[in-house]
Amino acid sequence: MDIQTIGIVGAGQMGNGIAHVMALAGYDVLLNDVSAEALQKAVDTITGNLDRQVGRGKVTEADRDATLKRIVTTQTLAELGQSDLVIEAATERETVKQAIFEDLIPHLKPTTILTSNTSSISITRLASRTDRPEKFMGFHFMNPVPVMQLVELIRGIATDKETFEACRGVVDKLGKTAASAEDFPAFIVNRILMPMINEAVYTLYEGVGSVESIDSSLKLGANHPMGPLELADFIGLDTCLAIMNVLHDGLADTKYRPCPLLTKYVEAGWLGRKSQRGFYDYRGDVPVPTR
Ligand code: CAA
């Protein structure tokens, strides 16, 4: 399967990172969002991140310019019709994703591979509601996309070998590493990472350590680049809670019970960096623990 044009639905944090790495690797990118403002913000973010890469000597000015030229933005899903591969990176809500696939499918070529960047929703269930479950799979990037080396590739029950190999070829061309995961709740990375973050919140909740001592323990004691609470703020506490709920519901094991303190932060609208407050308060010059 020859993949040259890649459609990306959703120009948020993940969508703009995916557009960046795909265009840098030489793919033609069609970046879609319902909001013109989100599309402009995405192009500005990509330009800023490419400039930083140029500044650090990782990308040449000519490659930066060619990368930006390869990204075309559109508010119309129909314009993604010519894509060889589509990666949906919209809001992490099943009804939203389903509605996008319904609108998009009539415009696609029969050969187009359809994928989702979902971090936890069942690939098999999403696939079953499309016209091409055998050409559907999970294509899960990590945040920040331009920096993180891993891409999880998740096969639904019906995904065929050609589809999987074509997606693996794309990951290779990006210079990233693919991990193949079966379609069970939260796949591999989040199955392991989120219970660790949830346990860090329990450690705080039970008064075993403060925000700072928990984060420095894992940074200095286990060589993690970020402490678990800092990382939770980076990912978004609403996302962390949603993934814990997927694990709890999907695997029906009490060991995945979301910590009540995590729920409380989400109820307060303290969602981490994106809302300026989470386990840290980001409104000043330096982040300050909120407990
Ligand atoms: N876009 C592009 N480049 C970025 C970037 C961004 N958003 N953020 C940082 N960078 C680049 C920097 O330019 C820098 O590049 P050089 O190596 O060329 O200098 C490099 O990344 C390191 O950045 P910094 O020196 O500014 O900062 P740092 O050393 O503290 O690293 C970090 C920042 C890479 C984010 C690091 O803290 C880290 O790895 N944190 C953990 C991230 C992580 O675990 N992500 C996975 C989350 S889970 C997930 O995504 C799955 C899910 O479904 C929820």
TrEMBL record:
EC number of this enzyme: 1.1.1.157
Give a single Pfam family match: 3HCDH
Q: Domain 3-hydroxyacyl-CoA dehydrogenase C-terminal: where?
A: 187-282
PROSITE patterns for the chain: 3HCDH
| Domain 3-hydroxyacyl-CoA dehydrogenase NAD binding per the UniProt entry, residue ranges | 5-183
Q: Which GO terms describe its molecular function?
A: 3-hydroxybutyryl-CoA dehydrogenase activity; NAD+ binding
Give the UniProt record's GO annotations in the biological process aspect.
fatty acid metabolic process
List site positions: Important for catalytic activity: 140
Entries under InterPro entries matching the protein: 3-OHacyl-CoA_DH, 3-OHacyl-CoA_DH_CS, 3-OHacyl-CoA_DH_NAD-bd, 3HC_DH_C, 6-PGluconate_DH-like_C_sf, 6PGD_dom2, NAD(P)-bd_dom_sf
Q: Where does NAD(+) bind?
A: 10-15, 33, 92, 97, 119, 143, 274
Sequence intervals crossing the membrane: none
Task: For this UniProt record, give its keywords in alphabetical order, as a comma-separated list.
Answer: NAD, Oxidoreductase
The family assignment reads: Belongs to the 3-hydroxyacyl-CoA dehydrogenase family.
Task: Provide the protein name.
Answer: 3-hydroxyacyl-CoA dehydrogenase
